[in-house]
Every structure is written in C-alpha cells, then in structure tokens.
Amino acid sequence: QKEVEQNSGPLSVPEGAIASLNCTYSDRVSQSFFWYRQYSGKSPELIMSIYSNGDKEDGRFTAQLNKASQYVSLLIRDSQPSDSATYLCAVNRRANTGNQFYFGTGTSLTVIP
Amino acid sequence: SQTIHQWPATLVQPVGSPLSLECTVEGTSNPNLYWYRQAAGRGLQLLFYSVGIGQISSEVPQNLSASRPQDRQFILSSKKLLLSDSGFYLCAWSVRAPPYNEQFFGPGTRLTVL
Questions:
Q1: CB contact B80 to A (< 8 Å)
Q2: For chains A and B, what is the number of CB pairs under 8 angstroms?
Q3: Subunit contact A34:B42, Cβ cutoff 8 A
Q4: Burial class (CB in 10 A: 0-12, 13-18, 19+), A14
Q5: How confident is the model over B4-47, as pLDDT tens digits?
Q6: Contacts of B78 (CB under 8 A, 6+ apart)
C-alpha cells in the first residue's frame, strides 16, 4: 500500500468552477499535511498546510483534513486558467532521524477558459 | 526569509561522466536537507536526506551519493552517470517547527544524460 494516494487525473473544470482534489494516506501517525502546486517544468510550491481536523481556508484555497478517515482534500474556488498545474499531496511524520515526508504522485488539473 | 539555491539549472552530460549538483540554504540554521529526483511524468523519489553535517541517509541504492560538508550545503554526486539518471533533481529543506514542519523546494536542476 502506498503511503499517499491521489487520483492522477487529469481533472478538467471550467473557469469559475470549484476544483476538488483528494488524497488518502496510510499511516495514522502522520502529523501534518500539505498541498503543493507544480507547474510544468518547475519545482513544487507549497500552497497549503494543515495539521488539525477540519477546514483551513486561504484565499480561494480550502484544505480539509479528516484524520479518522485518513483523508485530505483541496478545494479551489473560482478556478482560473492559471490554476492549471499538477497538485501534489504530502504528509509529514516526525522521527528521531528527522522530518519524513511522503508524496503522492500528483493530480493534473486543467482549468478550461 | 529563507532562500534555497540550486545550480546549475540545466545540465547535459554524457553517459559515464561525473556529476556534482549543489544546493545551499540561506536564512535558517540546522535544516533537514533532502535530494529528490522526478523522472518525466513521474512522482517524487526521495534519494537522500540529512539531519546535520556529515549525516546522510540513503533511501535508494544507486550510483549516486550525497554529502553535507556545511550546515546549509548539500551536494549530490556521481562518479559515472547512467542514462537512467536523467531527471529533474530537487533539493528541499525543512526545520522542526511544530505543528507544521513544512518542507520547501529549490528551483531544481534538469539533468539529461545522453
């Protein structure tokens, strides 16, 4: 079983719609959770971090965490063509050997003008 | 504020040649440092991580090695490159800053082995 699983997509939404990206993780001791945006040919950019159950909002982005279901999601409201990218879900576990991070393979999002 | 640098940005090397990629972090002390590789259309593969000077953990046995000669410097090396070493190499850093312990990536080096 993979540590972090995401639907690879591609996911297509019309401009102005809500894009919903989902992620599940396997280890219950995972402590914090992240969404990265990666444009083609560029490095991943951290856009949302969450560590407690519930919703966290930042502008058009809302991260949702449900630890009981081991589920993390990212909602993008009023989607724009500039949101077209691959979105990576990641989880963090702290260990004696340092911070450990585990990544999903990413979901490709296309926002259609 | 913290900044992470990687160089070179792009590199084309022949099979069998050596490799040295460098990563430096500014604005933080005692970071955890990481090397990842991303093959075309693929996910991130963790290659090495380091929690301090001279401390390297290898995640995948291969012809690559890593060193951390200074607190904020992380180097990825190879004595002889293989075709399969082509990819996008990303350096990242994090610090223990509960509850988030966020990780940030450098701009990356795109390596093509011919």
A1: no
A2: 61
A3: no
A4: exposed
A5: 999 999 999 999 999 999 999 999 889 999 999 998 878 899 99
A6: B18, B19, B63, B64, B65, B85
